[in-house]
Structure formats: C-alpha cells, structure tokens
Design a protein that fits this description.
mainly alpha; two-stranded antiparallel sheet; 2 strands
C-alpha cells in the first residue's frame, strides 16, 4: 500500500540505532567480523588475548619481587606464552611469582589448543550442541585450507561432520596426556630427593610445557639436573611428540588404532615424515657433534645416540635442551635451523611450516621427475590447490624469517648464524635459543615478538585476513608459460 507507514516494533532496534549500549555495539561488530572473515576474527581474538596477558604480566603481583615488569618484557612473554614458543627475555623460573606462573600455565593451554577450537569446546560444554557456525570455525582452526578456500572436498583428515568428535578428542587428549606424563614424572622426582610439593607442581609444569611444545622450565638450571635421567627425558620426548603430531592425527589413531588402512593420507604423511625427520636429525647430530667436546664429544656412544635423539625431537618445536645451543658447531646450527623451520604436524601445538607441507613439496618434485601429471601418495591423488598452498606457506615463512633476521642484525650487529637461529626459532615457535634473545634491546624484542605472532597465527590465515576480499574468478585468461629453472 502507498501512503501507509508502519509503527516501529517495540523492543527492537536496528544495528545502527544509537540507543544501543556500547558493549552491544562491540559485540555485534565482532560478530560481523566473524561472519564476514573468520581469519580476521581469529587474528582479532588472538591479538586480544596477547593484550590481556601483557597486562597481567605487567602487574606487580606477577613478578617475584612485586615490581612492574618492563613493557617490552611483558609483551614478549605474553606473545611467547600465547604462541607456545618458549623464548624468553627474562629468567622464567625466577622472575615470575606464583601468580605469574599460573598465568603462564593457563596461557600455554589456551595457545596450544587454539583460540577458535577452545571457544568451540566451551560452547559444546555449555550448550551440549555444536551449531554449523561453530563447526566451521573449529574446522578452519584445524585445517587452514578451509580458511583459504572456503568449503573443500570432504576427503581429508577430519570431515565437517566429525568436528564434534575432534573437539572432544582435543579436550580429552590434552588433559589425559598431560596428566599421565605428570603422574609418571612425580615418582622420579621424589626418588631424586625433591620435596613432595615441588615434585608435584614441577611435574605438572614440565608435562604441560612438553605437550604444548613450549619448553619453559620451573627451575633456574633448566634440564641440567635431569640431563642424565633417561626416564625423565623420555617422558619429555613423548609429550613433545604427542603434542607435535596434531590433534587430527590423535583423533584418527584413537578411532582406528589397529587399522592403518583406514587412516587418511594426512595421517600417514604426518607420521611417516615426522619419523624420517627425527631419525635424519639424530643421525646428523651424531655425525656432526661426536667430536665436539662442548656437546657430545666427552660422552660414550650410547648417551650420544640418546642425546642426539632428544635434540632432534626438540627441534619439532619442543624447546627443551640438555646442552648449550651456542656450543653446537655451525653445521649443527644450520641443521637445527632447517628442522625448526619444518616444525611439527598441522593443527598441533608445534609450529613451523608443518611436515605435511614439506611432504607435499617433495611429492610434487618426485612427480615432476617421473613425468607424472599429478601428485600421488598411498594410492590417493593430491589436488594441485594443496601444492599451491604449500608453496605459499614456505615462501611467506621464508620471507618473514628473512625480514626479521635483517632487521635484528641491523639493530644488534650480531652474527648471522645466531640471529637467523633466533628468528627461525621464533617463527617456528620452537623456543630453542643460542642465548641471544635475552640480550636483545627492546626494539629487537618487539621484532622477534611480531615474528612469533606471525608464525603462530599462520601464513595462510594471515594472508587471507589481509586480503581485501575473497572473490571467485568466472573467466580464464590465455595461457603462456614462462621459463623456469
């Protein structure tokens, strides 16, 4: 009808209505970002957590001497905790109070699981159901390809309909694995003469730092007291390994522990590539360090093999070390750089470009060498968009590390091998250090903090968030081939 106006419905306001409360407007704005760009939403929440933890670490109650921690150190610690990196500009064992250590413990749990995954788990616990939007958010957190390309074919590690089961696995595995490792550590610490209270608290702390691949230690001497304790170090390795293979892999192993034929290509590639890299690193450390008196040169063959295995495992992103990293030969530092840059499994507590990314690149190289038109693994064809994503991850990762290294070298005038090591350790959220990080000036600390942030957010999520829009091209241009190689 014309000439008739409808009366406004009582109690309903438009989104732009100035009468709405500021909190309601903020909530609607965040909700709008989440609907339009999940990648930007993830980065917004992730960065917000870093701000909150920076404020917590800045409080006098967080430091052992009840003083305000300098802003650069508070920011760096907050980023390192939320990004589960393990690098530190202060003595993590002595600088922080009991309250500060509680904040660290909670922070690494949040950072390890993932912000969107944790939010989905909390929603599942509260409402006892998982809506489509929550499933999509959690799926994007577990598989960057969904964030990059939207809906993808369901022939992958975890299907959208299995997200509820995956979230349950994430929560249960995180709790059970950390609890089991801690309970196995307690008797060993008691045998070593550590008081009961300290043994219990330190065991749970070490267990959490191992599974989350963070690498912080509750005692100032680090692992020096346990460098010859193979039981304790083996538990650390188990925690780091389980945290680094990824929750989708744990989910698949829990569902079909005795039927590898039903495992997805992702699970098989992750386990195979991880095993190869661990053995590869161990063998190289034995060869390169057996005659180094500062590391393994003064010990027997058996301990050399074990310590080399431990160091190779820690490059997955573990961050623990029984030796001074700066004492390694230059060749060993370069090997460690490569292993850290690769990192662990996708959707895990580890960082790096991920082992499946490396596997896809090698599969592409082998296919090209054989003259095959497509990549294949375990009787399955891998689509070309996965290769494009793998190349993008490596390129952007290398660019971030290069820019970070150049800036820090310009500021500090430190040698390339140590600066490059710290930059890769930050990007890959490894936590291993030559000792340079704690000597950095404030400006370099901020650069390294940004490097950690970029590495943990992920190059895929970051590139999608920075893109102006996601558009579908409805035409194909004429083809022309440039000369490559």
């Amino acid at each position: 009808m014309t000439g008739v106006t409808r009366a406004p419905v009582a109690g309903r306001r438009r989104p732009s209505d100035p009468g709405r409360s500021p909190w309601r407007r903020l909530s609607d704005a965040i909700d709008d970002i989440g609907r339009k760009s999940p990648a930007r939403f993830a980065i917004l929440i992730f960065t917000g957590l870093i701000v909150v933890f920076t404020l917590l670490f800045s409080l006098p109650i967080s430091s052992a001497d009840r003083t305000i921690t300098p802003l650069a150190d508070s920011v760096f610690t907050a980023v390192s905790v939320i990004c589960v990196t393990g690098l530190a500009t202060v003595d993590m064992a002595t600088h922080w109070s009991v309250f500060g250590h509680v904040v660290i413990f909670v922070g690494v749990q949040i950072g390890a699981i993932g912000v969107l995954t944790l939010a989905s788990i909390m929603g599942l616990v509260v409402s006892r159901k998982l809506g489509l939007r929550a499933r999509l958010m959690a799926a994007g957190d577990q598989n960057p390809l969904r964030v990059h390309a939207g809906p993808v074919p369901e022939g992958q590690a975890v299907r959208l309909g299995e997200i509820g089961g995956l979230l349950t696995t994430v929560a249960l595995s995180s709790f059970v694995i950390q609890l089991a490792i801690a309970l196995l550590m307690i008797p060993r610490m008691l045998i070593d003469g550590i008081p009961v209270d300290d043994a219990v608290l330190d065991s749970f702390y070490y267990s959490a730092m191992a599974f989350t691949n963070t690498g912080f230690t509750p005692n100032a001497e680090g692992l020096a007291a346990f460098e010859n304790d193979y039981w304790f170090l083996s538990l650390i390795m188990v925690g780091v390994f389980l945290g680094s293979i990824g929750f989708p892999v744990i989910y698949a192993l829990a569902r079909n522990p005795r039927n590898p034929r039903r495992w997805s290509v992702h699970v098989k590639l992750t386990l195979l590539t991880t095993a190869i890299l661990i053995v590869f690193g161990m063998v190289l450390y034995i060869i390169l360090e057996f005659d180094n008196p500062k590391t393994f040169g003064g010990i027997e063959a058996g301990p050399t093999v074990f310590q080399s295995l431990f160091l190779s495992m820690m490059t997955r992103s573990g961050g623990f070390s029984t030796i001074q990293i700066s004492d390694l030969n230059g060749s060993s530092l370069l090997v460690t750089d490569m292993l850290m840059f690769i990192g662990g499994g996708s959707a895990s507590t580890a960082g790096g470009i991920k082992v499946t990314t490396l596997a896809v690149l090698f599969l592409a190289a082998f296919a090209e060498a054989r003259g095959q038109r497509s990549m294949e693994a375990f009787g399955r064809r891998i689509p070309s968009d996965v290769l494009r994503l793998a190349v993008s991850v490596v390129l952007w990762g290398a660019t971030i590390v290069a820019v970070s290294s150049i800036l820090i070298m310009h500021i500090t005038k430190e040698p390339l091998d140590h600066v490059l090591f710290e930059s890769i350790s930050a990007f890959a959220t490894s936590g291993l250090s030559t000792g340079l990080t704690e000597r950095l000036p404030d400006s370099a600390k901020y650069i390294l903090a940004v490097t950690m942030w970029m590495g943990r957010v992920g190059t895929v999520t970051l590139s999608v968030a920075l893109a102006a829009s996601q558009r579908r091209q409805l035409f194909t241009r004429a083809e022309e081939r440039p000369i490559v190689g």
